[in-house]
Design brief:
Layout (H helix, E strand, L loop, with lengths): L3 E5 L2 E3 L7 E2 L1 E5 L2 E6 L1 H4 L7 E5 L4 E4 L1 E6 L1 H7 L3 E2 L8 H14 L6 E6 L12 H7 L5 E5 L4 E4 L1 H6 L12 E5 L5 E7 H9 L4 H16 L3 E6 L4 H13 L6 E6 L5 H9 L11 E9 L29 H13 L4 E5 L2 H17 L8 E4 L5 H9 L3 E3 L4 H13 L1 H4 L5 H6 L17 H10 L16 H7 L2 H6 L17 E4 L16 E6 L2 E5 L3
Parallel strand pairs: 1-6, 2-7, 8-15, 9-10, 10-11, 15-16, 16-17, 17-18, 18-19, 19-20
Antiparallel strand pairs: 1-4, 2-3, 4-5, 7-21, 11-12, 12-14, 13-14, 21-22, 22-23
Helix pairs in contact: 2-7, 3-4, 7-8, 10-11, 16-17
Length: 535
C-alpha cells in the first residue's frame, strides 16, 4: 500500500485565509504535506506515491455538518419513509403501516418519519384512529418532518402511559377531540415524552449509526457536530463504534437528549470540561431546547403568526430556568448552546449568554445558538457583541420555504437563516442540515445558501444570498472553528488532517444554478479513501 497521494490536474480549493486555489496537493501520513503548483511539488512524487488525476475536478476540505442527528438519521433508515412526495395522503401512510403490520411481530413498534401534514391531501395529521384501523396490535409512532411533533395509535399511547383525558405536559401539547380524548398527536415536550416509550436499544442504535456513517461519507462529510437525541447511551455507543472501527466519520457530540434532557445536562455540567485529544470523538457543547420548529410551526416568535394571529409558538422553557442553566454551565467552563428557532427564543438564549458573560467574563467561549432562524437587527447586534456563533440551516428553505411564507409572512421570511446578514456583521456561522429533518447533502446546503429557491421554484429571501466561496467556507472552515478545531481541519493547509472531498466537476467555474447537480466522487478521512462513487 502506497503511503503518499498526489492529487493533480484540478482545482484545490484550500479555504485558507485568502481562499487560495492551488493546482496540486500532496497527502502523506494522514496529513496535508504540500499544496501549490504541481511543478513545485512533483519532486516529492516517487514510487510510493499514488497519483490521482482530478481531470479538471475540484477537491475541497471534507465537509463539516455542524448540526445533525446521526442516531436519528440511522434509525429513520429502518423506519417508514413518509416524506412528500413518497406519500401524498394519510391513506398512503396507512398502506405503508399495514405492510409493516403484516411482517412485524405483534406488540413490536412500527416507526415512521418525515410526514408533513401541510402537504397531505387531507391537510391534517394522521391520528390514532387512522392507525388503529391498520395496526391495532402494534404500537405505532410517526414523527413529523420537524421532529417536534409525533402521532401515535392507541397501543402506542398506552405504551407511553397516555390515557383518555390525560392533562397536557408542561411545555407541550396533547391534541384532543372536542370530548377530551387524545387524538394521538403530540407536540413539543409531549412529543419528547413519547420518545421514551419508543427508544431503541444499544444494538439497534449502533447499527443505525453505522448506516448513518455510510450515508454521510458518501456526501463528502468527514466531520459532524452530532446534536444528539438518545442521551448517555448515544455517547457510549458512538465511542464504542469508533473504537471498533464501525464509524469512520469524526464526531463532536453535543450533550442533548430527547428524553429528560435537563437531568442529562445537569449531570454533565458537574463533570470536568472534556478537552480530549482524540480527533475522532470529542464532547461538544451542552445543549438545551427552548422552542419549537420552523415548519411545525411551533417556533416561539415575538409577533403572532401570519397564518394564526392568536398563536406565537411554544416557549418550552421559562427564561429564568434558561438563565440559570446557561450561567452554571458557562461558569463551569463548558461551551453552551440552545435550540432556538423563533426570534422570541433567540432573544431568550442570547440574553442568557450575555448575562453569563457579564457575570463571568470569558474570551473565546464560542457559545452557539442552534438554528437561530428568525432574527431582527437588535438580535444581530447582541449576537455580534457577545461573539455568539449562530448555526443556521439554509437547506431548510428548499423543503419548507413555501410554508414559511404562508406561516410567518414575507417580512419575517426575509430574515430567516440570514447568511448574508451574519457575514456582513462579521458574525461567523457554520453550515449545517439538521438531518434527518431535511436532506444532509452539503452541496444542496451550499446551493440553497447561494440561490435560496424553494422546492416549488419560488425565490425566497433573496437579500440573504451569499457567494459560492462564502457558502463553502460555512461548511468547512467555519464548522471546524465552531468546535475549536480550526488548527487541525477545515481547510487544505500543510499539517492539517487530510479530510477531503473530490467533487464531480469544477466548483469555481460551476454556474450557481448548477451547484445542486454536483456530486461527490471520493471522500478521504485522514488520507484514507472511505468512499468512491461509481462514475
Amino acid at each position: 500500500m502506497k503511503n503518499k497521494i498526489a492529487f493533480i490536474n484540478g482545482t484545490v480549493l484550500t479555504v485558507d485565509s485568502e481562499n487560495s486555489i492551488a493546482e496540486a496537493l500532496i497527502v502523506e501520513n494522514e496529513k496535508i504535506a504540500g499544496v501549490g503548483k504541481y511543478g513545485d511539488l512533483k519532486g516529492s512524487v516517487d514510487a510510493n506515491t499514488e497519483v490521482i488525476d482530478l481531470d479538471g475536478r475540484s477537491i475541497v476540505p471534507g465537509f463539516i455538518d455542524s448540526h445533525i442527528h446521526m442516531g436519528v438519521l440511522g434509525m429513520n433508515s429502518e423506519a417508514i419513509d413518509c416524506r412528500y412526495p413518497y406519500v401524498k395522503s394519510i391513506e398512503d401512510i396507512k398502506e405503508k403501516i399495514a405492510e409493516q403490520a403484516k411482517i412485524k411481530p405483534k406488540g413490536s413498534w412500527i416507526r415512521g418519519w418525515g410526514y408533513d401534514h401541510s402537504k397531505l391531501i387531507e391537510s391534517r395529521h394522521p391520528d390514532r384512529f387512522d392507525m388503529d384501523e391498520v395496526a391495532p396490535y402494534h404500537p405505532v409512532m410517526l414523527t413529523r418532518t420537524c421532529a417536534h411533533i409525533s402521532t401515535l395509535n392507541t397501543l402506542g399511547l398506552e405504551k407511553a402511559g397516555i390515557g383518555n383525558y390525560a392533562p397536557d405536559i408542561p411545555g407541550g401539547i396533547i391534541e384532543k377531540t372536542d370530548s377530551g380524548i387524545p387524538t394521538g398527536v403530540m407536540k413539543e415536550n409531549a412529543h419528547m415524552a413519547m420518545m421514551k416509550a419508543a427508544m431503541p436499544n444499544k444494538a439497534e442504535l449502533k447499527t443505525a449509526l453505522e448506516k448513518a456513517d455510510k450515508i454521510l461519507i458518501s456526501e463528502g462529510i468527514t466531520s459532524v457536530h452530532d446534536s444528539g437525541g438518545y442521551g448517555e447511551m448515544q455517547l457510549e455507543v458512538e465511542k464504542e463504534a469508533i473504537k471498533e472501527g464501525l464509524l469512520q466519520i469524526k464526531v463532536n457530540a453535543m450533550i442533548f437528549s430527547f428524553i429528560e434532557n435537563i437531568s442529562f445536562v445537569e449531570n454533565h455540567i458537574k463533570l470536568p470540561v472534556d478537552n480530549g485529544n482524540d480527533p475522532h470523538f470529542k464532547i461538544g457543547p451542552i445543549k438545551i431546547m427552548i422552542d419549537g420548529s420552523s415548519s411545525g410551526p411551533t417556533a416561539a416568535t415575538i409577533e403572532p403568526y401570519a397564518i394564526d394571529p392568536s398563536f406565537s409558538g411554544v416557549l418550552s422553557m421559562d427564561p429564568e430556568v434558561v438563565d440559570d442553566i446557561i450561567l452554571r454551565a458557562h461558569k463551569a467552563g463548558h461551551q453552551v448552546t440552545s435550540h432556538a428557532v423563533g426570534d422570541r427564543a433567540v432573544d431568550v438564549i442570547s440574553r442568557a449568554i450575555e448575562k453569563a458573560l457579564i457575570k463571568y467574563p470569558r474570551d473565546n467561549h464560542r457559545h452557539r445558538i442552534e438554528h437561530c432562524a428568525i432574527v431582527n437587527d437588535e438580535l444581530l447586534q447582541r449576537i455580534k457583541k457577545n461573539n455568539i456563533i449562530p448555526v443556521p440551516q439554509p437547506i431548510f428553505l428548499y423543503e419548507f420555504g413555501d410554508g414559511y411564507v404562508k406561516n410567518y409572512g414575507k417580512e419575517r421570511t426575509d430574515r430567516m437563516f440570514t447568511c448574508k446578514s451574519f457575514i456582513d456583521m462579521g458574525i461567523l456561522a457554520p453550515g449545517s442540515s439538521d438531518c434527518p429533518i431535511t436532506f444532509s447533502n452539503p452541496l444542496m446546503g451550499i446551493h440553497l445558501a447561494v440561490n435560496r429557491i424553494t422546492q416549488s421554484g419560488q425565490p425566497i429571501s433573496q437579500n440573504e444570498k451569499i457567494s459560492k466561496e462564502e457558502a463553502l467556507r460555512m461548511f468547512t472552515y467555519n464548522g471546524a472553528y465552531t468546535s475549536f478545531e480550526e488548527s487541525i481541519k477545515g481547510s487544505i493547509e500543510v499539517g492539517k488532517a487530510a479530510d477531503l472531498a473530490v467533487l464531480s466537476g469544477d466548483f469555481p467555474s460551476c454556474e450557481d444554478s448548477e451547484i445542486m447537480n454536483l456530486k461527490v466522487d471520493m471522500t478521504f478521512i485522514d488520507g484514507k479513501c472511505v468512499y468512491r462513487r461509481n462514475r
